Amino acid sequence: MKNIEKYQGIIPAFYACYGEDGAISTERTKELTRYFIKKGVKGVYVCGSSGECIYQSKEERKQTLEAVMSEAKGKLTVIAHVACNNTADSMELAAHAESLGVDAIAAIPPIYFHLPEYAIAQYWNDISSAAPNTDFVIYNIPQLAGVALTMPLFHEMKKNPRVVAVKNSSMPVQDIQMFKSDGGEGFVVFNGPDEQFISGRAMGADGGIGGTYAVMPELFLEADKLFKAGKMEQAAKVQYAIDEIIYAMCDCKGNLYAVMKEILRIRENLDIGSVRKPLPALVAEDMPQVKKCAEMIDKAIADFC
Questions:
Q1: pLDDT digit string (tens) for 182-215?
Q2: Is 180 known to be catalytic?
C-alpha cells in the first residue's frame, strides 16, 4: 500500500522569490518556506506554474528547490515540478530533485509542438527514469499545455509503478472522478482549479494544489476541515468567499502572481519581489484593488476561521 497520507491536504503552489535585482533570492525563498510551515499546510508544489518555471533556467530552479528543502526538513511534503521543454533538461532536474530527497516529482506534457501520445508517455517515463526512487505526479492542465491527459494515455502511464498521482487542473470536475476511479486503491488525485476546490473534494480529490492557496491558506484549510467534517453547507460558504477573492484579484491589470505577492507583503510583511517579464508587474492604479483584496481576505478569515 502506497503512503498517500503525505499527499492528502492543502498543498500551496510555491511562488518564485526574487531579489531587487530580479534574480532568484535564496533568503526570500527560505522565508516563504518558513511561512508555509507556520501556516500548517500539508506541503508545497515547487517550480510549477506559480513558480514561473517556464521563465527560469535549470540553475535557478535548482537553486529554488535547494532553498526550499533546506527549510522543509520533513515538515512539509515537497513536490518538485521538473518539466522543461526538452527531455534532457527535465531529466537533469528530476535527478537533482531526487538527490535532495523530495517526496515526488511532477511534469506537464511537452508544450508548443503537438506530440502523439506515445511520445508524451516516453517523455514522462524518461523523466521518471532519472529519479527511479521517487514518486511521479502527472500534471494535467490542458488549457495551458495544449494537450489533455486522455484515458488511453493515463492507462499507459499507470504501467510505470512510480506514477502515483495526477494533479488535475482541467475544468471539468468529473475528470477527477475518472482518474480517481481508474487509478485504483492508493492512487492520488489533486484538485487543481482553486475555484472548485470543494467540488473537487466531493468528486474524490485527496487534496488540492493551488496557486492562490498561499495568500489565504487559512481559508483553504478551513474549507478542507469543514468538508472532512461533513459540513458541506458551511464549506460551500467558505468556497464562495474564496472565489469572490479570486475574481477580485483577477480584476487587476498586473499579473495575478504579482497581485498575490503584493498581498503577501501587505498582510504578512513578506516581501518576495515581483514577477519576471514577460509577466506584467503591478501598476499604480492596481493598488486600490490589491488593498481591497487583502481586506476581503482579512474579513473572510474573521468570518470563517
A1: 999 999 999 999 999 999 999 999 999 999 999 9
A2: no
